[in-house]
Fold Carbohydrate ABC transporter permease.
Amino acid sequence: MAATTETDTPAVATRGMSLPRIQTRHVVMVLYLVFMLLPIYWLVKMSFQTNREILGGFTLWPQNPTLNNYRVILTDPSWYMGYVNSIIYVVMNTVLSLAVALPAAYAFSRYKFIGDKHLFFWLLTNRMAPPAVFALPFFQLYSSVGLFDTHIAVALAHTLFNVPLAVWILEGFMRGVPKEIDETAYIDGYSFPRFFVKIFMPLIASGIGVAAFFCFMFSWVELLLSRTLTAVNAQPIASIMTRTVSASGLDWGVLCAAGVLTIIPGALVIYFVRNYIAKGFALGRV
């Protein structure tokens, strides 16, 4: 019995020492979540209030919630067309970026050629440059060729930043696929397009999902280029939100409702590709 008591004592002491540490970790996690979710909660709260209630004082939740702000956005073409325009050029940009990045990343991962490392680094430097550097050149170029205020103009401008990032991510995934799979497919009589689509792309599906996610998110939240290269026909929601002023000033309730609706597409994308993102953090260059 004495021996049993002596051996049990360190275990009890260890459990007693680890308990406060676990509680501290939980407290820190809760505080972090509150800090991250508080702006979103405040945005949602204000979206159900009128301007008078918002400017009237501090409240944890509106006393008389209203859906008028959302009704304005969903019934006014000048508002909801901003979401349509954003989705159009974001999808176009994601497809174009992946269509260019997939063969480029395959070449970097499978072949060695003169200047390959320098070219790869040059691609990344394009991603490092701020969008403001290219705003004026793009504006003059698109104005001269008749692409100003079109969806393809914004989509092409965003590929300058998304293609290098997609190539960098996909190259890491492709390098992890053995080259013997390529050779075996060629021996079995597969052409390169058939091999690439039916065999190789499913093997790097996680990388494609991660690259598509980052391309989508950058193009969805980018403001400077999308605002500079559009005027009326292709104006995105981010640009519309920065120009909304009524006779009494900013319409805070409508702006907050627009902000809530702007978060939803990004949240849906994160939900559907969450497994790919987790694999990207574990296996790829994320």
About this structure: The longest helix spans residues 2-47. The CA atoms of residues 209 and 276 lie 6 Å apart. Residues 2-47 form one domain. The chain has 14 helices and no strands.
